[in-house]
Amino acid sequence: xxxxxxxxxxxxxxxxxxxxxxxxxxxxxxxxxxxxxxxxxxxxxxxxxxxxxxxxxxxxxxxxxxxxxxxxxxxxxxxxxxxxxxxxxxxxxxxxxxxxxxxxxxxxxxxxxxxxxxxxxxxxxxxxxxxxxxxxxxxxxxxxxxxxxxxxxxxxxxxxxxxxxxxxxxxxxxxxxxxxxxxxxxxxxxxxxxxxxxxxxxxxxxxxxxxxxxxxxxxxxxxxxxxxxxxxxxxxxxxxxxxxxxxxxxxxxxxxxxxxxxxxxxxxxxxxxxxxxxxxxxxxxxxxxxxxxxxxxxxxxxxxxxxxxxxxxxxxxxxxxxxxxxxxxxxxxxxxxxxxxx
Length: 342
Known about the structure:
Layout: H1 8-11, H2 14-21, H3 25-48, H4 52-77, H5 85-97, H6 104-116, H7 126-129, H8 136-147, H9 150-164, H10 171-198, H11 204-214, H12 216-229, E1 243-244, H13 248-253, H14 262-267, H15 276-285, E2 294-295, H16 298-305
Parallel strand pairs: 1-2
């Protein structure tokens, strides 16, 4: 069963559609430059004022921009980051996907299945939202695993093992398989390491790139997944997804590049992220606001998603059969089936 859809002409006028469809090479490029600018400035902040507070701030800001790179890769996968398609793929692959150990083409094949089958049984992302609501105790355990790097380590370990292939393969075959799956990612990360080495801070690659990737990035990716599709309606296109309002601080640390406008994205997936606020304004002006699933804050979403009584808590047991497998393709190829305990 495929997801229900609403035609663009039913939502916006031709003039409004022309505005929100507009793609910009300049704006798309600027967003990529902005993401990397925040990452390097956060590292510089810690280099200039080295103390525990600036280190934590740098990890949070960098982890947020790492999610930002994934979001910009997502727009690239839809072909909407820039107007020029060669530039779109170049930026998406080399500056967004590969540094994050992802691949735009693989992600696109997976992600379009999610759009075609949103909240239906064939939706590959359903395993991320189906278990909710959960208990507060279960959520705390997940947060601890995320922030201590356990979740990120297990995911990256599975990705690496998948890339090097079975142990009974000859070395040449294993190297060829690694090059196919993670070769370009290894190259871009080596380039980042070289830049930091040349700047006199080679250890920043581990402490201010890998560490945020395995910790804060994992946590906010979980929160994002919960906010977007947990406990939504599976029979109404205006409520297949959720938009969550976010102020300046939350956009800086948790919801970069308009990722919180998720209803709008699902209604019109061809709208670039930088036009989603305008798309929402038009939808409101056209009388669709009350039909849309919107929460005032991420705290409201978490309260709703953790509303199951703690008396139902079963540590270490699976809450939903679908969680017996990780999502293959959520960050490109590489995730092996594994268990995500409660």
